[in-house]
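Appendix C. Worked example: procollagen-proline 4-dioxygenase
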Amino acid sequence: MPKLLSSLAILYLLVLVRSHGKTKIPENNYAISIHDLGKLIDYEHYLLGILQNFSNALQQRVDAIEYYLNMTEYEEERKLPDDPFRAFRITRRLHSDYLNWMWLMEQQPWETLVKHITAIAPQMPTSKDIEEASSGLRLIQWTYSLPTAQMARGVLQSIHHNTSLDAMQCLTMARHMVNHKDFSRAKEWLMEGLKMHEADEENEFYYSQLGTPLADFYELFVRILDELGTRFLAMTELQLAIKNWPEEVSLQRAHSRLKMNIRIGKEPAKTEKKTQGAYRNCCSTECRPTAKLHCLYNTTASHFLRLAPLKMELLSLDPYVVLFHDVVSDQDILSIRNLAKGGLARAVTVTQDGNDKEDPARTTKGTWLVENSKLIQRLSQLSQDMTNFDVRDADPFQVLNYGIGGFYGTHFDFLEDTEMGHFSDRIATAVFYLSDVPQGGATTFPDLGLSVFPEKGAALLWYNLDHKGVGDNRTAHSACPTIVGSRWVMTKWINEREQLFRRPCLTSI
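Step 2, the predicted output written as structure tokens:
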């Protein structure tokens, strides 16, 4: 059975390699949207079905061959035939049966299956997806100070999830850490992978066929030790690896590099000390800048609220930040998400020359709700009632879904681009939470020492401009990395042009 599994793995890898070489692979950006990751579940089930058919076809052949071997009683047949029946049987088999077995061995019943896999190869994750998924895990680990050993075993913030990483995935994370010069963390990931690999040593052939032989672990281990400055220990480990795998050319190259580094006394890599700042603290626990503020029923923002007041929690008065509870119904949330799912695209920034550019600090996909449906009209009226702003000049609603470790780097919502014609800056931002997030995903204001964790149906509102109409730098905010769950939000940017009589700019206060 292990050999059969290895054959299946080889078939899958060969198909992907061959297909990737012929087809231009599109950037599906799976890792930056949990919703889009759902597509991979369907693809995997499809592939597993193909591999199962391949396994069944091979197993039929194995069963037929084993039955034939037992039927011929080949161990007893080694003696010279002493009766005409045995002589006839062996003569007929050598004349007919073995020609048929040769024909069976030459057949390749998997060609049709290979074509099925090739057809969906362009939809498979790319190396970019692997890099972004690894970056997501790295950011989760750094932001929430998670021990490597616990992460590898599926323990996140003391909560044990029903999943874990294997040796190959730990090796991938170790390589990612090396690429980002975090050698101490790379060593931790590699050691976890080594423990898992050595505990499963009877399946070394399986790991080798999947491209992660034990020699690769030791080669990376030596490189990490070299970068950390423990080169004599690295040399000892490398010599042992070369003794075990003398045919590995990569180990010989590593040996030459290591000898050169020892001879020239190359400086070890410098490790940066990263302190636990307000950002990381408020991502891990809910922060409130003051305990003197309170909750109330808002009945004054609009006439409608006198009949249906909103539950409002004051978070900050300067700058003004409030959280409204239970403002969007579950039915409306479902409708919003259904509208958005078909148009999700990677979030980008606009450069000075007007081109779109991917931003590694924005691992999310989004779309604009521009249609003038009754749902959108009702949400716009809700925004106006909730904020007491005129939303006729506001931007359309933007719906975002975050990916693996999905986050939005610290930024301002105000623009202050005075070169734009007919410029109207964003006076306020409203963020509607369209899902609960079991772990992570807080909206945090580092300069205020304030964070709000997603609560389905709630809406967070803050003012971006001060009383003079100037951008308030204290409103710098970020979406902390999502640990568990799918973070859905809807943003409404309200512009200042129509607010002259609702919130006029004051030169003094």
